[in-house]
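Narrative summary of target 7.
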Amino acid sequence: MRLFDDATLRTLERLSLWADEVRVGVMKGNRRSRRRGASIEFADYRDYTQGDDLRRLDWNVFARLERPFIKLTEEEEDLAVHVLIDTSGSMDWPAGDDSENKLRYGLRLSGALGYIALSSGDLVQVTLFDGRGQSAWGPFRGRQNGWPLLQFLEASLAARAGGDAAARQTVTGPFLRGYAQRAHRPGLLFLLSDLFAPADYRDGLVALLARGYEVALLHLLSPDEAAPELAGDLRLLDVETGDAAEVSLDPQALEEYAARLAAWQEELRRFCGPRGIHYASVTTDQPWDALIRGALRREGVVR
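Modeled conformation, tokenized:
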């Protein structure tokens, strides 16, 4: 199933992603450097990455070392874009509802962000993670890699949707800490998750910041999580652990639930704001492109 039609892809090509400070040490892209005194002077070499412009390959060095290297200049810089998608069992909800399913919504949103970055000449890496492990695409750059990225996400959706949700437990905190430790090219990082984690994940976000990432936290909830339409005596099951809880829901209990949800989101905003983390919450009944044109533009991440 295709994530986007051709008209949507053409719209995405007109956008670009921005970080407060473009990371240094990269090849010429479509983004003008913000460093003063930038020039077209030779700066350094780096290893060739699939998608690089072959016109920038130093053939003399290749002939001597038999390894491809790209010449870097000080004129322009590209951006390293990392997209991390939580694919735990709680993200595959509502089950069987493609229109509001958080996993499908997150993969579509990550595809849009990745496609925007590739169209701008940025270096893109997309990683899906849960308790079973992780799968990654990239890092690649260049518009020609847009279609392979979408194919990867479409295949991932087909493979991960449904199945045994208990095998896909949430591991957000440990994964983020590990990702920060493995950092080779920090840049703009998007984390897409419902944040339903049994352990604290905030130290993982702090670890990413310490390694030089600029983080955008996209908090995804389904409409029935934001405003449950339930009543009476119920037995609720955790989709990942199978743990059960007996609850009685009346108007007063639902009001308390709404208050606690709002307090949780406000706590996240207070945590993210002073640290420079971009935070945006969204329910999956809202169009994904409205999030890009609205909240992410207001945050200055999309232009």
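The CA atoms of residues 7 and 13 lie 10 Å apart.
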